[in-house]
């Protein structure tokens, strides 16, 4: 057993996120396991770039209110206790609303190349504003 009492908080890389986002790694892929998990905290308006995961992703919202959007224009509003499963290969993004913080635990099962995430372009301000307006 390994008892970890704290993990360092790191600012998320600007080339993958818009706004202020902070990461606390829970677990990183190490052979033979391929699980990656992180607590991710988004400030109001902050969000990921578009991205996809080779083996999908599960998000468990721990605090606040956020949005998860897909390329087909689907957007859901999430809050504490919400679970969102993004299937393998689906291009999506997630982040806080424009007025609230949001935190979630992100879980992915990696592949032979690492965590299996392919990072794409930023979500535009127009795409984000549309998501805020239309989220269900």
Explain what you see.
The chain is mainly β. It is built from one helix and twelve strands. The strands form three sheets. Strands 1, 3, 4, 7, 8, 9, 10 and 11 form an eight-stranded antiparallel beta sheet that branches. A hairpin with a 7-residue loop joins strand 3 and strand 4 (about 35-40). The model has no long low-confidence stretch (mean pLDDT about 95).
Q: Could you provide a short overview of the structure?
A:
This protein is mostly beta strands and 136 residues long. Helix content is 7%, strand content 47%.
Average pLDDT number? 95
Uncertain spans:
none
Number of helical stretches of at least 4 residues: 1
Give the N-to-C terminal Cα separation.
42 Å
Q: What structural class do you assign from the helix and strand content?
A: mainly beta
Shape: globular
Oligomer description: single chain
Largest sheet: 8 strands, antiparallel
Helix content: under 10%
From N to C, what is the helix and strand string? EEEEEEEEEEEEH
Furnish the topology, listing elements before pairings:
Layout: E1 9-11, E2 17-18, E3 21-27, E4 35-42, E5 47-48, E6 51-53, E7 57-70, E8 75-79, E9 83-86, E10 92-96, E11 102-109, E12 117-119, H1 125-134
Antiparallel strand pairs: 1-3, 2-5, 3-4, 4-11, 6-12, 7-8, 7-9, 7-10, 7-11
């Amino acid at each position: 057993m390994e008892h970890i009492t704290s993990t360092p908080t790191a600012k998320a890389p600007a080339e993958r996120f818009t706004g202020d986002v902070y990461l606390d790694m829970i677990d990183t892929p190490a052979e033979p396991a391929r699980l990656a998990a992180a607590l991710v905290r988004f400030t109001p308006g902050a969000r990921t770039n578009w991205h996809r995961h080779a083996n999908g992703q599960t998000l468990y919202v721990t605090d606040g209110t956020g949005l998860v959007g897909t390329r087909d224009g689907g957007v859901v509003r999430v809050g504490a206790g919400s679970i969102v499963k993004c299937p393998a290969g689906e291009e999506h993004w997630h982040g806080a609303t424009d007025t609230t913080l949001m935190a979630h635990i992100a879980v992915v099962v990696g592949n032979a190349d690492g965590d299996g995430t392919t990072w794409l372009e930023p979500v535009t301000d127009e795409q984000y504003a549309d998501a805020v307006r239309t989220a269900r």
